[in-house]
Give the backbone structure.
Amino acid sequence: MKQLVAFDLDGTLAESKQPLDAHMAACLRSLLDLALVSVISGGDWKQFETQVIARLPADADLGRLFIMPTTGAKLYRFVEGGWRQIYAETFTAAERGQILTALERAVDDAGVRPDKLWGPQIEDRGTQITFSALGQQAPIDAKKGWDPDQAKRIALQRQLVTQLPGFSIRIGGTTSLDITREGVDKAYAIDRLIEHAAVPREAMLFFGDAIYPGGNDDPVRAAGVDSVRVRDPAETAAILESLIAWNRPLPG
Ligand SMILES: [Mg+2]
């Protein structure tokens, strides 16, 4: 049986930047009785606090949870009654400057500068810079309509790949690109999980909504972890219900 179930967050466990709904939170609570659980996302710790941690039932076994913000460049665990950062790998000032310059240029070169912004486009998470094309506070409706076929972000990604050797540029969420050091992707997160959770790759199962070429969940599948591509959080919840019922111990 699998020992660890890992999840992408946005589009897999919750709608983009929204908290887990009560049903999903209950599913995760039940799953924690059966397996170790990890959530891996481009978002920073604060995002996990509001989207995931605050939503979990009080009796959830938090000691079995591995929270991996910024695509696994950070790890948080619940130790001795509190959430602690286990490690974090941050950008140098020079790396940050190089990325911001390249992003400015790529937006113009790809011709995708939007007419309207809702909040800042750039979020610096220390270990990852996330570009949200319409701004971080853009409403979901505007976000869903901006790049439904990903053409704009693929064009941006093409520009950035040539300008940022040594960095990894991934499409995520509905309007965003995540930039990390090369090699820091969700497959890297899985490698760190193998180390910190002491669970072999074969004993892991991964759920993600972006398991396709260029998607930010695809490196996990490519790295040989059994992976399930889901359409949305509702589909994840339906699969989890089945998985939990199937593995529920029989009485006596
Ligand atoms: Mg996702």
